[in-house]
Amino acid sequence: MSYPNSETHEHSPRIETLLILGASGDLTGRLLLPGLASLLAEGKGTDITLVGAGSDDWTAEQWRSRLKESFSAAHDTAQNAADDAGERALARIQTTSEYVRIDVTEPGALAKLLGSLQGPIAIYFALPPAISQKACSVLKASDLPAGTRLVLEKPFGSGQESAHALNETLASLVPEHQIHRVDHFLGKSTVLNILGLRFANRLLEPLWNNNHIEKVEIVFDEALTLEDRARYYDTAGALRDMIQSHLLEVMALIAIDPPTSISERDLRDQIGAVLRATAIDGAPAKSSRRARYTAGTIGACDVPNYVDEAGIDAARQTETLAEVQVAVSSWRWAGVPFILRSGKALGAARKEALITFKPVPHLPAGLTGVDTPTRLRIGFGPDTLQLEIDVNGPGDVFTLNRTTLSADLHASRLSPYGEVLDGVLSGDPLLSVRSDTAEECWRIVEPVLKAWKNNEVPLEEYPAGSDGPSGWPS
Ligand code: NDP
Hints:
The chain is α/β, with parallel strands linked by helices and about 475 residues long. The protein has 2 domains: about 15-155, NAD(P)-binding Rossmann-like Domain (Rossmann fold); about 190-415 and about 435-465, Dihydrodipicolinate Reductase, domain 2 (2-Layer Sandwich). It is built from 12 helices and 18 strands. The protein has helices at about 25-40, 60-75, 85-95, 110-115, 130-140, 160-175, 190-200, 230-255, 265-275, 285, 415-425, 435-455; strands spanning about 15-20, 50-55, 100, 120-125, 150, 180, 215-220, 280, 290-295, 295-300, 300-305, 320-330, 340-345, 350-355, 375-380, 385-390, 400-410, 460-465. The strands form 3 sheets. Strands 7, 8, 9, 12, 13, 14, 15, 16, 17 and 18 form a 10-stranded mixed beta sheet that branches. It has a 6-stranded parallel beta sheet with strand order 3-2-1-4-5-6, with helices on one face. The chain starts with 16 loop residues before the first strand and ends in an 11-residue tail after the last strand. Bound molecules: NADPH dihydro-nicotinamide-adenine-dinucleotide phosphate (NDP). NADPH dihydro-nicotinamide-adenine-dinucleotide phosphate (NDP) binds near residues 31 and 153.
């Protein structure tokens, strides 16, 4: 995508080296390298040098064979062939990219590595969050090469206070526009389509307020279970993993006032403003629910009880399904509940924003059959748009019928991580989370985390493969 009116990226120096810390990790193999392949295939970033680093004792050959594997997986799923420059870059990188063994928490080790690389450098911290924080603290003692960009994954800190401390550390290293806090949902084409849908159509914006909208639900339910990520997930849970970051960002795009431009300053100012006005809707004990899956079946697969999975500590009471209701205190949204929900091991995946409109103020006598309000569904995978309306139906023309106007939206040729890396390499932080937003997202969910820690909200259970505990969605 192009980034109009960006304040910084046109003058940002070209990144020469992309250094991925955590080269042997899950994120790097499954998402980052395929994202890089999709970017290169578009002919972007084709002259970069890629360096992988990590604590594993890998040889360059092991790293290159990982590159080959991830690049060819991306190639197999690409909708279009790579352009010539892209093909050449893919071939060059997977035969020449170097691997460096490093403990990034060791004082001086990372600074020494940076000194040996061609700058400007983008450092991608694909590391466990605590290790990323430590690596950034250790870097405080050194001068970074000019133009260094820092790319931090979620979760950004573990609460408002630690996010603030991490922001201060990062600010002491490089200016804000050289910091990319990744939320790859902001790279999803359907999520970005919310902007076009809302602000390029006369039809919706006049109705986009509390006069016409009853409620907004943002749901990301998956059939996927732990996928060998117990070490991370059991300390995070559904609220921190999904709602605190991704779903609040989606909510913000649905709730923002029209920005003057889609630029890093104007768009992110609006996101910051709407999140500052957002809070849990009343007492957390009433506005949140949590649950954990037990043994069940998904499709033909038996799923063990969450607490019996390797690496899980049942005493942590980690939720695999979370729901919170938030309110936005503004003229536009006063009184409209925003319900955010996400869970794992559910019978059916449901990934969408559902906007429910208020009933018509008056239905003329003689028109019958209406029992459902107008609803707009924005699907996040598959990427779809559906408008559910009532029209005169077949048979008795005055008996109304439900009709759905549907469209499949074209996904961007770049994967979400391709979009993320495009922003990093071009020096445009438009799609990255600004420092204030990273802290606000924690501020919003912290009352719920506290209430859960104090057991003010029961941890319910649901069998894997079900729709969740009975009575959900609430
Ligand atoms: P993994 O645990 O799979 O990988 C972490 C990597 O960091 C490993 O390569 C590990 O090497 C390396 N590492 C750990 N300690 C050090 C150290 N001291 N010095 C150098 N390297 C070190 O984690 P993920 O890839 O899953 O996650 C990475 C980040 O991405 C996290 O912040 C996560 O929240 C985020 N994320 C992950 C997603 C995913 O689907 N995996 C999705 C979205 C975000 P070794 O194995 O040798 O210890």
